[in-house]
Backbone:
């Protein structure tokens, strides 16, 4: 059990690296011919939001009785579609705001749904990870709007 917790904690925090690296690249003006840091950020964010929606789906399926199961399953699909939609937007700033909304509201749903089978350490980690993800989204948005 201890090693499994170490793995999900490590993977969770390692998952912040692409957010941080692409934000730094964008602010520093580092561009490679094969990598646009703004697109890399938005596409990674959409992937992670879809992943989080999928984990919500999995946790809901593990419940044996709840009044919210149908609503939560629908929401998990809507979050995945929201993430995909953000990739289709021609204005990166709107995509970033859309993704930020997705992260914040998904965390709120998880926090307010007490019957999801999640331990407190995972909940604390999710708050920290979402906070850093939202901070990098804000920094990337500022860079797009005012930095070029």
Residues:
């Amino acid at each position: 059990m201890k090693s499994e917790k170490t793995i999900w904690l490590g993977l969770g925090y390692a998952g912040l690296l692409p957010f941080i690296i692409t934000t730094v690249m964008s602010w520093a003006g580092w561009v490679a011919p094969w990598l646009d840091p703004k697109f890399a950020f938005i596409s990674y964010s959409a992937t992670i939001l879809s992943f989080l929606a999928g984990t919500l789906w999995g946790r809901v399926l593990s419940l044996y009785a709840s009044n919210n199961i149908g609503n939560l399953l629908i929401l998990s699909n809507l979050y995945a579609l929201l993430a995909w939609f953000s990739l289709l937007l021609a204005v990166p700033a709107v995509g970033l705001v859309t993704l930020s909304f997705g992260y914040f509201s998904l965390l709120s749903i998880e926090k307010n749904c007490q019957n999801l089978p999640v331990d407190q350490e995972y909940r604390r980690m999710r708050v920290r990870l979402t906070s850093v993800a939202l901070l990098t989204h804000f920094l990337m948005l500022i860079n797009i709007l005012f930095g070029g």
Observations:
- The mean pLDDT is 89.
- The helical segments are 2-14, 17-28, 37-61, 69-88, 92-112, 120-147.
